[in-house]
Structures are given as structure tokens and as C-alpha cells.
Amino acid sequence: MGTTQILFWFLTALALLGAIMVLVSKNPVHSVLWLIVVFFAISGHYILLNAQFLAIVNLIVYAGAIMVLFLFVIMLMNLNAETEPQKSIWMKFFGVATGGLLLSFFISFIVSSIDLKNKTAQLKEGDVGLIKNLGKVLFSDYVIPFEIASILFLSAMVGAVVIGKKD
Amino acid sequence: MTNLIAYIPALPLAGFLLLFFTGRRMSKSMIAFVGAGSVCIAALLTIVIGITFLQSGSSANTQTLWQWMRVGNFSCDISLRLDALSLVFVFIISFVGALIHIYSIAFMRQDEDYARFFASMNLFVFSMLVLVLADNLVLLYLGWEGVGLCSYLLIGFWYKVPANCAAANKAFFITRIGDTAMAIGLFMLFKTLGTLNIADIQQQAATIPNVTTIALLLLMGGMGKSAQVPLQTWLPDAMAGPSPVSALIHAATMVTAGVYLVARMNVLFLLSPAAMNVVAVVGAITLFVAGCSALVQTDIKRILAYSTISQVGYMFLALGCGAWSAAIFHFFTHAFFKALLFLAAGVVIESLHHEHNIFKMGGLKNKMPLLYYTFLAGASALAALPFISAGFYSKDAILWYSWSAGNGNVMLWAVALTGAFITALYSARLVIVVFWGDMKTPIAQQPGKLMTMPLVTLAILSIIAGFVQWPHNLLHVTLFADLVEKVLPATVLKQGIPPELLLQLIAAVVTLGGAYTGYLLYYKSPHIIEQWKTAEPNLNLREFFVKGWRFDELYQTLFVKPFLFITRSNKADVFDKIHQWLVTACSRLNGWLSLSQNGSLRWYIGSMLVGIIFILALQFFL
Amino acid sequence: MDSLQLQALLPFIVLASASVVIILLIAARQSHTVIQITGFLMMCLVVLAMWYVRDVLPRAIMPLLVVDGMAAVFTGLIVFCVLIIGLFSFIYFEEREENPKEYYILIFLGTLGAAVLTISRHFISVFIGLELLSISLYALIAYLRNRNNAVEAGMKYLVLAAMSSAFLLFGMALIYMDTGSMDFDGIAKQLQTQGHSPALFVTGIGLMMVAVCFKLALVPFHLWAADVYQGAPVPVTNFIATVSKIGVFAVLVRFAQAVQLQSYHFAVIIISFVAIVSMVGGNLLAIKQQNIKRLLAYSSIAHLGYLLVAFLPGNAAGIEAGMFYLFAYSITLLAAFGIVTMLSGRQADADQLEAYRGLYWRNPLMGAILTVALLSLAGIPLTAGFIGKFAVLNAGVQQQLWLPVIVLVITSVIGLYYYLRIISTLFAETQVIFPKEKSLHPLFVAGTYGALLVLLILLLGAGIFPSAVIDGIKNFLCQGFRIINF
Known about the structure:
The structure holds three protein chains of three kinds.
Chain A: H1 3-24, H2 28-48, H3 52-77, H4 89-112, H5 131-139, H6 143-164
Chain B: H1 7-22, H2 28-56, E1 60-71, E2 74-83, H3 84-107, H4 114-133, H5 137-155, H6 162-193, H7 198-204, H8 211-225, H9 234-237, H10 243-252, H11 257-264, H12 266-271, H13 273-296, H14 300-321, H15 324-351, H16 364-367, H17 369-383, H18 390-404, H19 410-435, H20 449-464, H21 479-484, H22 500-524, H23 527-534, H24 536-546, H25 551-569, H26 574-596, H27 601-621
Chain C: H1 3-8, H2 10-27, H3 32-52, E1 59-61, E2 65-67, H4 69-95, H5 101-118, H6 123-141, H7 148-179, H8 184-194, H9 199-215, H10 223-231, H11 234-259, H12 265-286, H13 292-311, H14 316-343, H15 359-362, H16 364-378, H17 384-398, H18 402-426, H19 442-464, H20 466-481
Antiparallel strand pairs in C: 1-2
Helix pairs in contact in C: 2-3, 2-5, 3-4, 4-5, 4-11, 4-14, 4-19, 4-20, 5-6, 5-11, 6-7, 6-11, 7-9, 7-10, 8-11, 9-12, 10-11, 10-13, 11-13, 11-14, 12-13, 12-18, 13-14, 13-17, 13-18, 14-16, 14-17, 14-19, 14-20, 16-18, 16-19, 17-19, 19-20
């Protein structure tokens, strides 16, 4: 087992732990902090895949901008453990049952897929995530969706302004 | 000129549309102007077109307006065809129609539904013109149903009286039996030939295997419309409509639609001797049955109604014998004198405070001389008094052909002769009882000019219309037969029959005898009838005739009562239970499903998850 | 990208620039009327652009987009719907105190999203188009935020749509993992070489179906429909009911065509299942509904179920039937919601059935149009709805899909009940005095009535002479089926 693989398993375990902790934390602020851990772990995965640009963007956008926003919102709304509404036991049971079933389906599908066993992630080898290649692809083949994505943000912006406007 | 054909039906249609949509806002004179004017112009146009047509000497003019529909290999055009046969009909419809419309202007003046009346009348004229001008049977059927509808609307014109509505319903239902048979006939015709174009049918008729069935089904349709036994019971009741309606629809035009259909489809009938015989026998039975009933009626319009049935019976008899032109000729003269009689009867009824019973009339001869003489002209034409009436020329031809024509025989002749006697008898009775003797009801009003003008015109025509066609042995004038035989087959004569003159003499004697008998019984010595009435069986017979040979009661027992019994025994409605169950099931399911729409987002997400799991499970286990 | 490809994209570029123009107009403080008219003209410009570029079709813009005949039909239908909805929007928003200007930006952006869907041949463009549509819709649904249920409806749609997008992405990822391609044709090619239906592909399809069914509001992903239809402003409801569904259905058809979706047994089973439960569920839910917006929501659930029956055969006849059905359905709903818009007052939408009592006697034209629209929804002959349903039935019967076809027939009969219920309300006698009609600019009232009349003529015209529409669709489809080599 090389360093890469040790790192891979470590990051995987960290991501899973973080995700579970997001769910089980009673305090929303803790949830958000755990979410940052998850993002860091995933950025680590990107680096392992030789996609440094994506890793950095992931950190800046999600762990940086979005999480700060989340924290602001939570603090402004003064959410804490006491104000959380009580869910009925049935609801919990239902959620666990459906979620569990869904998970088991996915696992069984993935396990039953023969092809998948021959496919492994190309650690340290791929170069799509490098800023140069990404830029090339984005501004040649994928220029139209890139433009449309900008329109998408326009739409989101207008929508947010309209809903949030004061008058 | 021939491309003007379409305007003949278009004018009444335009009148109908105008009256239908804006009639409520029009003044009465405006309504009369539109209603009668459209038909009058159509009549003038007909005359112009008719003259051009006759001069051109062509056999048929077809005008295709547009394609109505095309389904698969079936196509149907809106296409009009003018030939000698349809020309005669179009002439009668538009011309007599115009006179009756003019008459109606005054006759219906007091009615509040003036616009509705003229709208319906115009629609009727339009439908009837479509019927006779149609170049294919689908369009003909459209007109056929159109006149049925208008007949329904006009019989029930005074719909506030329940009896009138019942009469309208009866007319509609009974003709519907015939219409259904006719529709089946049309389907069969289309199935065998693949076309309903009249010209194509005439060409390909010889290839039809089941021609008798088709001919009989078409005949059924004709019998329903033309009130032939056993579908005749609706016509006497149809007299509930206003008198102009009776004159136009139930005497001059619509009831002869059956005659037109049989004549138009003569190729089919010629191919099937059995069908021809049926036509002749139906005609013979009808003319006798209806004639007997006409003898004993007391309602003036019912007498005329039965006499119409009987006269249309003559036409069927002629058709069945193969005397095509004689049948159409009789239609031609009958239209004039029967329309006249109905219009005159309308005047009588109107003048006598809506009195229908002839025995409460009388003595009108001196008070209303003009009416009397016109009525007399009509009655003598109906009775077929020799030489001086149009009816003589047409009926004499039928009598002669009923024996001498290819399909005729002595039995048919004998029935027709008896019918002629009866006809003359009840015509005389009608004139004598209504116009002679003492006055029993005072006169309310004299008819105006608008009403007398059509009467006089029709009276003149009732006398002179017959001169266009004389019996062969008297004078060689055969204008009518020459015209019609461009379209209809010529009448074939048999060998070895008595000389025509002899039969004519017999017929003349019988007719005069009938008229004289009427004079004797109802004027000279009425006590004979009083005596006759004292005997029980005679009264029963009279009652039997008055009730129209009890056909209504027969149908009541045969069809209506069993049907009512079935409906009554299914009062709980077994089939409805199934529907009830379905309704309950739906409404309960609706209740359950509505529970799912509880507005809670958490629940919505949950249901989505369940859906996803369900889909994945489906995939997993398939 | 060469100039021809750019030309082919011209209508979409115009569509995108329409929203920018509106933004600039708002910045220049122009009035509602000006914006409305400009929007209308821009939509006309889009139509003109489509006409202008018709000769360069079909054209693929590798690897993401393809502008072909099918795309032209769907885009044309979408633009037509937006044109009409735009007209209805004016009289609706002119009454409201809220500022209506930004509404037009969002509407055009949403339209662009739906239009992008129709030309997508790649997962990336599908996703972006779908998101563009959804994000515009979030804001549009909650646009009248002073009304409680508007924000609630927007929130519900946001959460549920985000969730469905997550499943869509997951499904796409699984398929990408399996085939190594996100291009429809690439996936199809890869599947052919593999020669069997691998588990990952199957799961991916299943998850993507969830998102598609959600957007089309099919049972069991339909629960949002009624709440959102009710909460959204009427023109937005109209937009959701027509434009967003046309776009999603277009992409579904294109994807299914590329990968031969109907040749997979499991896919047919899933789609049949969804179609059947949608037909039954939608119609049953509508039976007792008193709120006309919710009722039309349920009705559209059922109608999308019918549409799936046409989608099932997967042959040309089925696609034609589906397109005709979508056409008929769209113009019918446009007309129905148009009447709802016309009747909506300042305070609340006219969504209670009571508001329609005796409508025919108060305003015969509107009553007649709504009657015809409802008859068309019910599938009564002489209306476009009947021909559409007949075409769908025909397509189903030809492929011997007996179960869906029988369910279609039975549920149509159930549906008749609630449509006739509304119609009978329209003709009922009424004593209630209703407020006078709104005093609006006569030009717009005339325009709205004109639009309604056009819809009425289309409804009846397509019902009486359907061959013109069907031939048109066939013509365009022939272009679409032409094999494209670049």
C-alpha cells in the first residue's frame, strides 16, 4: 500500500465520518463545521486525482463562500438545538427505512455491476482537472453551455433580487 | 345559366339564416318580406332556369359546389343535378311553396312566432330542394333528414298544446323507422358498389347481387316519408300544424319524397320485379285503406290528410306498375289541387272560429263565393271529374296503366277503380257538407287578397295543369311524358287488354257515380245515412274507419305496451347498479388519494423517495 | 463553430438577448407597457429568426446541441406558448401592486431553458437547460411574495426540484461511469458494443426517470403539482403547465430515440407503470376538486399520463401522436388558464369554482372559450383534444399496448365527469353580482381577446382539420430523422 492509497482511504473515511456527523449533530453550527470537513476531504480526493484546480475551486467556493453564508444564516436566524421542532418517531422510522432501502439498492446495483470491477480511478494520472486543459475544453467544445451557465446565474440573481427586494 | 342551380336552394337557406339570427328584431312585414320573398325569387329563378334547360335539350346538368368530405376511398361532393325529374319537383316545390308562403303572410299574421314560422318554412324549402337536387344519395339523405326535422318543427309549431307535440313526436318516430331502413339500404348500396353517386349507381346497378333487399329497404324509407301502409298513421295527426304547413309539407311536397326516391332509383326497382310488385301492392292497399277512412272523418283537415295518403297511394301504384311518368304526373297535378284544398280549408277554419268539424260548417257557398269556387275546382280535381279537372288526366292514366302497363293486372285496376269511386264520393261529401245547406256557424272574417290570390292561382292550375298530357286515344298531347321520359323509363304496355276507351268510360262512369252518390247521400236524401247508422255493425264499421283501421291501437298493443312492460319491469335498473358502484369506488378512491395531498413538504419528499425505491425495485427484480 | 452553426442558434441567441433587453429597459425606468410590448416584439423576433434559419437545419453543434426539425417543432410550440402567456401576463400583473417588470426577464430566461432542452443531445446541456428552467421557475412561482402560499409553493418547488436534480445528476453520473460518454449518440454506441443492459445503465435510467417524471408531474412524483399550480400566479402556472413540460418531454423523446429506450424491457415497464398510475391518480384526484387551478393541475397529471402512452411505442407514429397531443394539450391549457387570468381580480386569483357560476351568461365569449377548452381536455370530438387522444390511442393500439390503452379509455370517461361539472357551472343561473370588468388599456384587452380567439380557432381548427397540423409535424420530423454527419 503506497502513500497515495493510504491517503485515499484516510480521506474517504474522513469524508464519511464528516457526512455522518453533519446528520447527527444537534447543533446546526456543528453541522456546518462538519460539512467543511467533508469538503476538505473531497478536495483532497481531487488532488489525488491530479485535479488541483478543481480542488482549489471546491475549497474556495464551497468551504469558503457557501459555508460562511450558511453560518451567517444560521446565526442570524438564531437556530439552535432547543428551537428544533420535534419530529415524530414514525417520521424518523420512515426516513431511516426509506433511506436505508435506497442505500441498499445502490450498493446492490454497484456490486452487481460486472464492468465496474475492472474500472479503477486513475490516481495521479489524469490531467483533465489541470487548469490549462480545463480552460481549453471549457472555451472550445463547451463554450455554449458555459455561456448558458452565465445566463443561469443571471436568472438566479434576478430571482433572488426580486424575492428579496424590500419594497 | 345552369350554374345558377345552386342559388335555388341557397335563397331559402339565406332566408332561413337571416330569420334565424335576426328574426327576433325584425318587424312582421320585414319577416314576411324575407321569408316569402326568398322563396318567390327562388320560384322565379326556377322558371327561368327551367326554360333555359328545356330549350337546351340536354338531359342533365350537374353543378359541383365543393367536396363535402373524403374518408378513405369514399368521397362525397356537394353537387346538384338538374334533370327532367328534379326539374318537375323543383318547380312544384318552389312555385307551390312560393304561393303557400304568400298565403302564410296573411294566415300567420296574428301569430307571435312569426319569424320562427317563416324560418322553419324556409329551412324546409331548402331541405326539400336539396333532397330533389342532390346528385348523390348522401346529400339526398341530408335533405331527407332536413325535411323530417322541419316537419317535426312545424307540426309542433304551436307547442304549447301537448297534443301537438305528441303529433310531432309521432310523425318523427314513425318516419324514423323508414329512415333507418333507408339508411341501412344506403349502407348496403355503398358496400356493394363503393359509391353513392346517383349516376354511378344507375350505371353499375346491374352488378348488384342483392338488389331486391336494397330496393325494399329504400322503399321502406319512402313509405315512412310518404305515409304508406303500414307507416301511414302519422299523417292524420300531423294536421296539428298550421294549414299552410299541411298544404306545403303534408300534401304537396314532403310526403311525395318517397315517390321521388323510388322514381330516382328506378333502375334498382326495374331490376327486381318483386320489389316492383311490393310497391304496387303497397300503393293499392294504401289508397283503399286511406280512402275508406277519408269517407267517414268529420275533421276537414283529417279528411284531406287521408285523401293525401290515398292519392300518394295512387302514385305508388303507378310506380309499381311501371307507369313512371304517370306517377310523376299525378304528383304534379296533386300538388296543385291538394295544396289548394288545404289552403282553402285553412280559410274555412279561420273564418269559422277554428272550427274543424265539417258538420258544424255549411252554407258557405253564398257567403264566400270565391272560396267556394276555388274549393270546388280543387275538389273536382281530387275527384277527377272528366276533362274539366287536372286530376282526371293524371288519374285516368294511372287507372289505365294499372292494368295495361307491364306490371299491372286486373286486380290492381279494380282496387284503383274502387278508390276512384270512394275519392269522388268523399270529395262530393266535403263540398256539399261544408258549402251547401244551412249555415251552422257564423262567419268571422273574409280572407284578404294575399290569401285569395294563391287560391285562385292554384284553382286555375288545378283545372288546366292536366292539359299538358292527354290520354293517347283522345288527343296526341304528351308534353309531360316526353319531358319526364328523358330520365325515367318509358311505360311498356302489355298485349291483350281491353281497349283503352272502354276502361276510360268505366272510370268516368264510376267517378261520376261516386260524385252522384255523394250528392244523393248528403244532399238529396240524407236519411239514408241516418238509417244506415242505426244498425250496430254499421256503426262499428264506421268507428273502425274513423280510427284509421285501428292501426294506432294495433301498434299500441304490439309495440308500445310490451316496451312499456319491459321498462316497468326494469324500474330498479339493473345496469345502473354497476354505474353506481363505479361512482362509489371513484369517490372513495378520490378521498384516499386526497389524503396524500396534505401540503406537508416532508411528506412530499417521503413519497418521492418511495417512488424512487419502487422504480429501482422494479428494475432490480425484472 | 462555424457561421452556419451560429445561424442555427440564432433564435436561441435572440431569446437570451430578450432578457438582457428587458433588464436594460428596467434600468432605463421604462413602464410596464413598454416592457410588455418590447417582450412581445422580441418573441416575434424569435419566431422570425426561426423562420430565417429554417434552411440551415438540421445542424449539429458538437458535442452538445443539435438544431433539427424536431427541435424546431418543440421550440416553435414553446415560443408560441410564451407569446400568448406574455399577453395574458400584462392584464394579470397590471392589476397587482407588485412590480411586474422583472417577471419578464425570468419568463424569458425560463423559456430559454426549455428551448435549450429541446436542442440538447448531451447530458451537460440537458442539465444546464433544466436548471435554467427550474431556477427561473423558483422565483416566478414565488413572485407574488405577499401572498403566503406563493412563497410556500416556491419553497416546495425549490426543495423538491433540487432533490430531483440530485437524482438526475446521480443517474447521469452512473451512466457516464458505465459508458464513458455523456453524449446521447456516444452512449448509444457504447451500449451497442456492450451488447447487454448493464446494471449501472439501468440504475442510471431509473434515477433519471425520477427527475423527468418530477418535472412532468407524473405519479408518484406529482404531489408538488397541485400546491405549486395553486400558489403560483396564473400566467406562471400556465408556463409550468405548458412550456416546462414541452421542454422536458422534448429531451425525453430525443434521449429515448438515441438510445432506443423503448427496446429495453424494464424501461417500458417503468413508463407504462408511471403512465397508468398517472392517468388513474390524476383523474381520481380531480373528481371532487373545487379549486380550478388545482383541478387543472390534476388534469394535467392525467394528460401527461396519456402523453406517455404515445411515448411508449417509440416509433415515428408514436412520436407524431405525442407531438400532436402536446400541441393540443398546450393550446387547450393556454385557453383555459387565459380565462382564469382574465377573471382574476386584484386581490386573488379566480380559482374558486364559484367564480365561474353562470360565466356564460355574463360573458358569452369567455364562457364559450372555456367550454371548448374543457371539452378539448375531455377529448370531445371536433376539438383538438379529441384528435390528440385519438392519435395516442391509435399509436397505442398499433403496438398492442392493451393495458395502458384500456386504462386511458376508462380514465377518460372518469375525467369527463369533472370537466362536465365545470361546464355545467358555467351555464348555471346566477344571482350573484360580479364586479365590473377591469379598466385596462383597450389595446391589451383587445390583444388578450384576440389571443383567446386565436386559441379558440386553433382548438376547433385542429379538431376539424387535423391533417394540416399532422402533416406539418411529419414534415419537420422527416428533417429530424435525417442522419446528420459532420
